[in-house]
Specification:
141 residues; alpha/beta; Rossmann fold; 5 helices; globular
Length: 141
């Protein structure tokens, strides 16, 4: 039996590429915020009730969270929404199910002073987008 993989944000750039790669070998279900697109399920990551229903109905083995607000300037102007989409929703998903979870982050979690970062380097975001992808609150920013 093929593993069931849920790709949250499958109609975005990264999510669509991941979907394309995995679709031939796994049972892949994609989501898209804006509605039915290429057979993806409509899913708004900030709607907790909708999240619970979708995950329960699919029972995925793996969830790949590729959804994000990636426009850095937009995140600066809309920090609450950026925090909801990029941080809060992933915390909810991780607490509410037993699926393996893969979260796509960004190099914006680093300040850019060093360059060529690895997963072992200490993050130091300099903007709200980076903070949201690091899953930190904006209160001290």
């Amino acid at each position: 039996m093929k593993k069931r993989i849920l790709i949250v944000g499958a109609c975005g750039f990264a999510g669509s590429k991941i979907y394309e790669i995995l679709a031939n070998n796994f049972n892949v279900i994609g989501t898209c915020r804006t509605g039915q697109h290429n057979g993806y399920k409509k899913f708004d990551v900030i709607n907790e009730c909708e999240m619970d229903k979708l995950i329960e109905s699919i029972s995925p083995d793996i969830i790949i969270y590729a959804s994000a607000i990636t426009d850095v300037d937009y995140c600066e102007m809309n920090p609450s929404l950026a925090n909801l989409v990029n941080a809060h929703s992933i915390r909810l998903i991780s607490k509410k199910n037993k699926s393996k979870l893969i979260y796509l982050s960004t190099d914006y979690v680093f300040d850019g002073k060093k360059g060529t970062y690895s997963e072992r380097d200490c993050p130091n975001p300099v903007n709200k987008y980076g903070l949201s992808k690091l899953n930190r609150n904006f209160d001290h920013f």
